[in-house]
Amino acid sequence: MTATAPLTLLESRAVEVNDPAALLDRVARNFPLHAFLESPMSGGFFHRSGVIHMGQIAVSCSRHSPLEIGFDDSPIATLTLPLSGVAEVASDGQRLKLEAGPMAAYLPGAAFTASTGTFEEVMICLDRRRLAETAAAIGGFGDRAGGWAPAFVRTLRVDGSASAEQAELLRHLHLALRMLEAPLLQSVGGLSASQLEDLLFRLVAAIVCPDAVRGMDRADPDPRRDHPFNELLEWIRAHLHTPITPTELSRRSAYSQRNLQYLFQRRFGCSPMQWVKRQRLSAVHADLQRAQPGETVAAIARRHGFVQLSSFAASFQQRYGIAPSILLRRSRTHTS
Asked: Which superfamily does CATH assign the domain made up of 223-336 to?
């Protein structure tokens, strides 16, 4: 493994530094963390990394020569995924060995040091409070994040080889991270439209605190008598113009992810997010039929939460059998 070999992730953003002081400066510019090298080396030192920021998340992929590095206390949690090589992390009196495989280290923000050989890893820095809120939401506990906060302030080594469930979650996390550089991502609106930030929070929350999202469901609810579900539907209809994520739906309704899937499938035959998209398409369809002079398809689509117009147009035509531009033109003809 060499410095010049492509990074497994974020190679398009890769920067290579060969000076320990330059590395510390790069860390300080990209992360809310204060790093220090415990034994800076000059000869043979290399560090190649790519970094991307997305809302409350920063993701880096790094490959570097053997080093010893430390980080001071921080309010930011870090999940480290080893890709190759071996490292040892020390924090809160624990020493965690990391090596390639279905494995991760969760560091809640307490000071830690890392001693590595030649090593490649992915680091995901996230807001710890939001992690607890996400776990509470997808577990069906609404805004009651406090009960799960302790799970996110302890150092943890996640070993997927000992748990099929954890291995599957780690696999999905790696797949989600690869979306950061997906060539066609911009064609569907980019990172914000893909809701990738919310997905990463959900996956990390489930990896760190599986008890919050496993086995906590109430009995399957009856959608005909469940007022909170009807209130959720009304909230969705009133907020189609805003970003809506699965976590937000769980948080507002206090339904677990499983119960939300059950309710929407039973009543509408689709997932929650599929229903949200249907409502947005329906709202656009109605507005196109009563469009005011000068209004465009793009303006109407964006008004109802569609960011990428080509994918919107394809979905609209698939659902209604007509291109939105043609419907707008026909509507103007009928009203003129």
From this structure: Homeodomain-like (1.10.10.60)
